Amino acid sequence: MGNCDRARWWHRPVSAIIPRLPFYARPGVPTVVKPIPRLKLQGFNNLTKALSFNIYDVCYAISEDQRQRYIEYIDEAYNADRLTQILTEVAHIIGANILNVARQDYDPQGASVTILISEEPVIDKKQAGKEVLSGAVRDYEDPREASVVAHLDKSHITVHTYPETHPHNGIATFRADIDVATCGVISPLKALNYLIESFESDIVVMDYRVRGFTRDVKGKKHYIDHKINSIQDYLSRPIKKRYEMFDVNVYQENIFHTKMHVKDFDLDTYLFEEKAKNLSFKERMRIEHQLKREIEELFHGRNLVD
Q1: Is 80 within the bounds of a domain?
Q2: Between the N and C ends of the chain, which has fewer C-beta atoms within 10 Å?
Q3: Cα 236 to the chain's mean position, in Å?
Q4: What is the pTM of this model?
């Protein structure tokens, strides 16, 4: 069964749609982030750092049976167990301690996982897995249903999935909404690349915001404790090479927004359980047009008019 792995194409260059970006926000321009001395704080670091994703995967399933199998494939590939593994690894990457995990598979499709984390350990690490999970796991009479709960102190990681197919035109989409919120010195930006690579990501829309303040030993308030020009500063070179990106940032409010889409297109990577060579030229052109329009609408967040 094909799984729609991607190396993708985009219909129109961002430069044709978006006004020219400032130098520091242009894709391909390296940004050097120099380490700064750690702040000497009066007490606990109260800054809240929140990173939110919308990740989209797009496929084309020709028949109704194929569309149903696409939903089944997505539900299996990104069920609650798999999502829990991904978010657990996120917690490890950012250096957080898992307090509690809640997970749920839904009928007819979709799944959710919520993990509560802490910057400092609050239970014996050796017993964390046994004690937390043994008290959190709940079995149901229906073997298709299960739930697990996980918690982090003052911080959390969540994911919700939304598989969907169009009832008439063959378009099938998978959306994952991910939120990583931390309080203290741990940063969700450390898990940025891992999360993008963990999903079949054609389009990624990211928001990062630092909220609140923390005081240093002299009583001065600090509203951010690290330098950042763009979320792109924290993306790996392979990801930057694979995606077209642009920013909308509000620096004075510590709000950073980045959209990205894959650059290359190969129809075979979009077709679910089908090959382009088996389709007529007219059929290939029709499907390509539908896919490109779907991606462009999702990327810009609005319906396009013919």
Answers
A1: yes
A2: C
A3: 15
A4: 0.72
Amino acid letter, 51: L
Q: Is 4 a catalytic residue?
A: no
Q: Report yes or no on 160 lying in a domain.
A: yes
pLDDT in tens, 104-151: 888 878 899 888 887 655 434 444 344 433 433 334 343 333 333 344
In a domain, 171, yes or no: yes
Q: Where are the beta strands (DSSP E) in 119-229?
A: 138-139, 146-148, 155-165, 171-183, 203-211, 214-215, 221-222
Hey, which residues does 260 pair with through a beta bridge? 204, 245
Catalytic annotation, pick one of 11, 52, 147, 160? 160
Domain annotation covers residue 8: no
Q: Which residue has the tokens 């004075």?
A: 252
As for how many domains the chain has, the answer is 1
Residue-range definition of the domain harbouring residue 190: 14-300
- Is position 15 annotated as part of the catalytic site? no
Residue 160: active-site member: yes
Burial 221-258 (b: 16+ CB within 10 A, else e): eeeebeebbbbbbbbeeebeebbbbbbebeeeebebbb
Q: Annotated catalytic residue: which of 156, 183, 230, 261? A: 183
DSSP-derived letter for residue 95 is T
